[in-house]
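Researcher: I'd like a candidate sequence for this fold, 226 residues long. If you have to choose between options at a position, lean toward the conservative one.
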């Protein structure tokens, strides 16, 4: 129990509360997000002693409910899944799982998505991960052209016509200031079924010859109101 002495304040701040309760900051934040710890009930964003005492009485149940994994970025999430299921997990899998409603995005860190560690910990269906890895796999420009079976220069026409858009971006390995576009496997596969493109003709066009894709109309950019 809390006592009102010089060593035990009658209210607790956002660092004192988890520290004295034996919770890490991410456990504390998740417990609050899950409604296991109520919001501050005292001035200055602090908690009164009775609230702290109630949480302390439930601390084991709270630790169990919040899980053992903090919220993580895509790379760490995909590494975790690869290790758990002992399978190849492609870059882009975390975003694909989020797209399919299996792995919520709960925030960001320096512009990069943070995925819910509790949902990741509870994701035990290997088939969901396999499907997400297959559909969400990201390709660089040359890899995307290989999936489509076309020349890299043909890719520019598909982008110009709006038939293909990048799914994500990353920083270049050789130039940290350069942004590299990445293309999603499922988008590429869907494009191969488009009736707007004569794929046989495109793939049969030899290097140095004008691509049939050059005839595609350029997508008009949306105008913004003044």
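Model: Candidate sequence:
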């Amino acid at each position: 129990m809390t006592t009102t002495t010089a060593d035990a304040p009658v209210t607790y701040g956002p660092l004192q509360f988890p520290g004295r309760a034996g919770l890490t900051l991410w456990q504390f934040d998740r417990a609050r997000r899950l409604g296991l710890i109520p919001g501050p009930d005292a001035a200055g964003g602090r908690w009164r002693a009775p609230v702290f005492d109630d949480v302390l009485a439930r601390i084991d149940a709270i630790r169990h409910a919040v899980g053992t994994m903090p919220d993580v970025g895509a790379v760490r999430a995909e590494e975790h899944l690869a290790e758990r299921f002992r399978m190849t997990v492609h870059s882009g899998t975390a975003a694909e799982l989020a797209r399919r409603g299996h792995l919520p995005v709960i925030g960001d860190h320096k512009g990069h998505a943070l995925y819910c560690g509790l949902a990741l910990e509870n994701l035990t269906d290997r088939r969901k991960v396999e499907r997400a890895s297959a559909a969400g796999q990201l390709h660089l420009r040359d890899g995307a052209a290989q999936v489509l079976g076309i020349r890299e220069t043909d890719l520019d026409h598909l982008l110009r016509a709006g038939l293909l858009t990048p799914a994500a971006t990353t920083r270049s390995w050789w130039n940290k200031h350069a942004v590299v576009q990445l293309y999603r496997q499922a988008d590429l596969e869907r494009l191969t079924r488009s009736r707007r493109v004569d794929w046989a003709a495109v793939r049969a066009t030899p290097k140095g010859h004008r691509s049939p894709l050059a005839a595609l109309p350029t997508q008009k950019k949306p105008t913004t109101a003044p």
